[in-house]
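worker-3 :: picked Flavin-dependent reductase
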Amino acid sequence: MTVTHDLGADALAAPDVAGSELLRSTFRRHAAGVAVITAPGGAAHDGRPAGFTASSLTSVSAEPPLVSFGIGTGSSSWPTVSTATHVGVHLLGEHQRELAATFARSGADRFAPPTRWTTGPEGVPLLDGVLAWLVCRVVGRVPAGDHRIVVAEVVAGDAGAREGRPLLYHHGRFNALRD
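worker-3 :: tokens ->
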């Protein structure tokens, strides 16, 4: 992947408080699917895996199969994700609100019980009970303000790991679909 434009400090001036609040208020009204992104721990990170809850997951391209997600550079998972060659992408079901909350909670030991997981392809932590999962090779990290947009190519996965309805994030909380 070639990055030709830096969306960092020069391109994206720090928004004022009203601009940031406008963005937050607007996106509270946007329902988004909930995913957990995981990365294997390396020697530089005490060998501990990292993971976080994301609602910014996007399908980018079918050929090659690419996804993207955003991660804050101040998050506890960023140091591990910043050097990871592969990541796991897990689509959560409505039965996994507590798992989503665990991976969203700052300072939590996200991989301790009751979280159930195994080591998958490329050493990526794979969470049990998810609706679907992917293992992806990181092909780019694009600066975007205080975040990075990570672009990754799908190399393995299970699109139907479990039947169920998706978990959604809307109005600042986890929600389920209604009939």
